[in-house]
């Protein structure tokens, strides 16, 4: 019983410290990623592009291995910059969901922009993953 109380006390005591460590530019959420992608310096632009490219690779890998339904049916001619623009546009247009995780929001943006329910649509799958 005493061990549980000490554990609970430690958790409660650490809560304020965790709150102070919050970084408004943490790309884990839509808010944080949009904050990074809105900066105009070369490092931020590169970080934004690479993070979104990683999200795209994540989604592709999940689709290839059947872990998610077909979500992204973007044409083979779509580019990383185009997907970045689509995602940033989605974040700006949906401020009510930006507190959610950026991977989830990326999947929603791609599903909306490149719907697999369109006639002749097929999932964009890169078999390297």
What does this structure look like?
The protein has 129 residues and is mainly α. The chain has a single domain (26-129), classed as 10k-s Protein, Hypothetical Protein A, Chain A. It is 59% helix and 0% strand. The chain has 5 helices and no strands. α3 (42-64) crosses α4, α3 packs across α5 (102-113) and α4 (80-93) crosses α5. The protein is globular and about 35 Å long. The N and C termini lie far apart (49 Å). Residues 8-20 have low confidence and may be disordered.
Write the layout of secondary structure elements.
Layout: H1 2-20, H2 30-37, H3 42-64, H4 80-93, H5 102-113
**CATH classification class:** Mainly Alpha
Strand content: under 5%
Gross CATH architecture? Orthogonal Bundle
Integer average pLDDT:
81
How many helical stretches? 5
Shape field:
globular
Number of strands: 0
Radius of gyration: 19 Å
Summarize the structure.
The protein is mainly α and 129 residues long. 59% of the residues lie in helices and 0% in strands. It contains 5 helices and no strands.
């Amino acid at each position: 019983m005493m061990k549980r109380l000490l554990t609970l006390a430690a958790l409660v005591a650490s809560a304020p410290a965790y709150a102070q460590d919050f970084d408004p530019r943490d790309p884990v959420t839509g808010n944080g990623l949009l904050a990074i992608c809105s900066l105009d310096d070369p490092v931020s632009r590169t970080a934004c592009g690479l993070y979104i490219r990683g999200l795209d690779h994540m989604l592709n890998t999940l689709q290839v291995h059947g872990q998610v339904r077909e979500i992204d049916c973007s044409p083979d001619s779509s580019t990383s910059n185009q997907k970045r623009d689509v995602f940033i546009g989605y974040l700006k247009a949906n401020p009510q969901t930006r507190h959610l995780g950026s991977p989830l929001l990326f999947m929603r943006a791609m599903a909306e922009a490149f719907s697999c329910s369109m006639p002749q649509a097929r999932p964009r799958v890169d078999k390297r993953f």
